[in-house]
Design goal:
It is a single chain. This protein has 160 residues and is of the alpha+beta class. It has two domains: 30 residues, no CATH class; 102 residues, 2-Layer Sandwich (TolA/TonB C-terminal domain), CATH 3.30.2420. It is built from four helices and nine strands, in the order βαβαβββαββββα. The strands form four sheets. A three-stranded antiparallel sheet has the order 5-4-9, with helices on one face. It is elongated and about 50 Å long.
Length: 160
């Protein structure tokens, strides 16, 4: 267990007299850690992680003959928009543009720190494109990772 430093809270007026110092010592309370500041309480109460509000379904590229997916990395701006969007992997290159467009159209509640909206970095999505045959059977991705069994089991496609 980590030993935290302690501080003393004195409940008497701040008069620099011997009587006051003695009274302060008599009424002192020892508390763990440094004294909390007002900034600390404001940050705790007004801090919010970003969250997804809405995301449009990605548009399947017309030239796609099988299912596919892309691992999309992005940041969330103070305005709640995805920025610095890039793909770290796509099962086929033809899905890249559609995946980036889909994430770019998503809306987020931005992160807040101390009640102020902030840029939030390091987010990622798996953007999937499902292609089925006329009987409703999923056509697996070119790399073989996106299969009906993998989707039903909730397996993560990204990251590797």
């Amino acid at each position: 267990m980590i030993k935290r430093p302690t501080y003393t809270l004195c409940l008497t007026p701040f008069l620099l007299t011997a009587a006051c110092v003695a009274a302060c010592a008599a009424t002192a309370q020892t508390m763990p850690g440094p004294p909390p500041t007002m900034d600390y309480f404001e940050l705790k109460q007004d801090s919010v992680d970003p969250s997804l509000v809405s995301a449009p379904s990605p548009v399947m590229p017309t030239e796609a003959t099988q299912s596919g997916y892309c691992c999309v990395d992005f940041d969330i701006s103070a305005q709640g928009k995805a920025v610095s969007i890039k793909t770290s992997y796509c099962s086929e290159d033809l899905f890249r543009t559609a995946a980036i467009t889909s994430v770019g159209e998503a809306e987020f509640t931005p992160a807040k720190v101390g009640g102020v909206r902030r840029l939030s970095q390091g987010h990622s999505f798996d953007v999937t494109f499902k292609k089925e045959d006329y009987q409703g059977v999923l056509k697996p991705s070119a790399d073989g990772r996106m299969t009906r069994a993998a989707l039903d089991a909730g397996m993560a496609l990204c990251p590797f």
